[in-house]
Amino acid sequence: MNSTQSSSRFLVAESETPEARKKRRESVGRSSGETYLDILRRLAPGATCDRIQPADADAALPPGDSLAEYDAVFLTGSPLHLYEETPETRRTVAFMRSVFASGTPAFGSCAGLQVAKVAAGDSVRPNARRLEAGFARRITPTADERSHPLLAGRPAAFDAPAIHTDEVDALPPGATLLAGNRLTAVQAAEIRFDGGVFWGVQYHPETGLDEVAGALRRQADSLVEAGLARGEDDVEAYALQVDALHREPNRRDLAWRLGLDEQVTDERLRLAEMRNFIGALVRPGR
User: Fold this and answer.
1) Cross-strand bridge partners of residue 176
2) Is 75 in contact with 15 (CB distance < 8 Å)?
3) Around 125, how many Cα atoms within 13 Å sit in the side-chain half-sphere?
4) Domains present along the chain, CATH in parentheses
5) What is the rounded distance in angstroms from the CA atom of residue 58 to the CA atom of residue 52?
6) Any stretches that span the bilayer, and where are they (predicted)?
7) What is d(CA 186, CA 125) in angstroms, rounded to the nearest whole number?
8) Spatial CA neighbour of 243 closest among 218, 210, 214
9) Looking at residue 165, what DSSP letter applies?
10) pTM of the entire structure?
């Protein structure tokens, strides 16, 4: 721990709806925001961490606080489809526009990246190729941005937890593509807009293997519909292996069977992007 981490103020923006939060808690015991809070308290012991739920009608910062008083904002994943005009999507995008305007640096995963793109004036779409479920494979940094600090420590190609039905198809002006793979062209990006900066990934570095298994179970019907499984029994059999590797991350037989290496099974390596963001952009008392 260093003084930068210990004196930081972080805001976690959890854009899951109340129903989605309930389902996730029933599945893995915590909401997406609670997962982020747990990870941040381990990456930056002593940091003050607050949470807001911008999709909710009654969302509000703690009394007397403003976005500019935070050292960083973290946007979680969410089942929201941002091409659908709903009160929840409008509130979430408006929140991110306020984050950009505040100048507070932000990081986001999965839907967090999509929210930042829409807030910067662009759009997202359903996955053009197929559902990326369980793990994103062979994520490759772009040749021009291989040295970008967000991806420091990552190899030339790596896998990461991922499950998403929507994608960022292109980036708005002021954005930089950092990584992609065969299924999803934009796996990591930097977006600059209205005086603010956002670093984001389409995958889930914050997600442990137990949460991957839970996500597969929650979306079993979609996996069958997409042709990735013959039935729910197939999904459950795969999820059981992922769960087992979570319990015993040194099981080489399970890692081999699932095609995973330490970039996924070693939490320290899996959290590279979050740690890199905190180290590079978080400056207490900006």
Assistant:
1) 190
2) yes
3) 10
4) 3-207+266-281 (3.40.50.880), 209-262 (no CATH)
5) 10
6) none
7) 12
8) 210
9) S
10) 0.93
